[in-house]
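Discussion board: Methods & Data

I've been asked by a reviewer to show the raw model output for two of the constructs in my manuscript, not just the figures. I'm not sure how much to include, so I'm pasting the format here to get opinions. Each protein appears as its amino acid sequence followed by a line of discrete structure tokens. Is this the kind of thing reviewers expect to see in a supplement, or should I convert it first? Here is construct A:
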Amino acid sequence: MTGILAGKSAIITGGGGGFGKAIARLLARDGAAVTLMGRSQARLEQAQDWVQAEAPDAQVALAAGDAAKAADVKAAIAQAIEHGGGLDIAVPTVGGGGGYGSIEAVSLDVFMQDYLVNTGSAFLMLHEALPHMKPGSSFVFISSTAATLPFVHLASYCAAKAGLEQLMRVAANEYGKKGIRFNCVRPGLSHTDGMDALFAMPGYVDSFLPYVPLNRTGVPNDVAEAVRYLAGPESAWVTGQSFAVDGGNELRMAPLPPG
């Protein structure tokens, strides 16, 4: 396959989700062999079909597994290496939060589970993928504006995303001498798979728009384009950075919960 990423091999966790498949489309369009990892085989197959419909020459493999389990991550990386002949790009997109509520209302177990999902899954990808990566390789993590904006009732999610960004910076500082790059994309409110219920909630989107200078919410491709830049040779002298893709939300503040 031709393209600026021809000969490159990429793995994307959360590969069945909106961000994951949008990122896969752009990487595959530009020639990378892509392995999608996710817990649902059915969702992975749907994502594979969608990517290949959008980019008919796409090379897409599937690896069912849990990004928060070391054995599953190790197996998915081995599959990506077999599929693409190595490993050059890793994009852990897994995230989310179950700890919605005041700090007093959230248990330590829920707080730590949010850390595992958002930061622990990224750490596992680093831990298992780094031994296979060579100079010129790139990690791109999916953070959130919650890493910098203090959203009410999202303490565990905010803390986990902030931890993810510091993990990225430590890795960038430690492994820069090996020519491996690490960056984050910080999405603002975006309408991805799984967000339909929130977007349908009366007042939810309207509560954000006054704090978004560009006056719209995001779509997966907004974030995918930023990931594609950070994954590819165009950003060869960029590492340790976190780019907000949020319509300007961080220029203002986090909205209060509706109601």
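Construct B, same format:
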Amino acid sequence: MQFTDKVHDEGSLREYREVNSHRAERAKEQLRERSKLVRLDPKPTLDQALQALWIYRQFAFVALYEGDHDEAADWLKKSLALSKTPGVPTSVRAHIDGLAGHQRLRRGEQDNCIGCVGPSSCIFPIAAEAVHTRPSGSREQSSGSPPISTNGPATLRIRWLLNIAAMTLGDYPAKVPPRFLIPVGPFRSKFDLGRFENVAPASA
């Protein structure tokens, strides 16, 4: 939202479209200007690394917004490498790990689920008939780096991504390491509420 122009006529859908249509490029332009102010030595200082990491992650967010997964993956790869700078908090690396997992699964979702071609597509827990037929995104997530800590919400987010990825590959729960496994039992209702079916494809 920080890169969105001000809307003068809140009743104009055309104006909303216009202010949103250029914000990704506006964000990139501002981030490029900001990156010129950051110097990275061959062995970056902690301050240099933290400043660059903020910019790299913003570039990754913008790329995800545009649906450019290759560019997002490149920025996240740079971020993960830079996060190894001595003194960078483990929570920062955990956040980058979580964002990288999100990027991989989002690629898989776009490759497999945007059309939602079946009644079980994109519904948790993912049923056998909804397993991804183009598994590269989820496969990358499953083979990615595991949580680096046993505490904190960032680690739980990464565990969640690992479990979802395994479901989309048909590998859940057998191939999820026991210490990372999130059982679906606690999510099940004590009452028979039925199961939602996505009828959108049949209604199109």
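Answer (T.O., handling editor elsewhere):
This is acceptable in a supplement if you add a one-line summary per construct. For B, something like: The radius of gyration is 20 Å.
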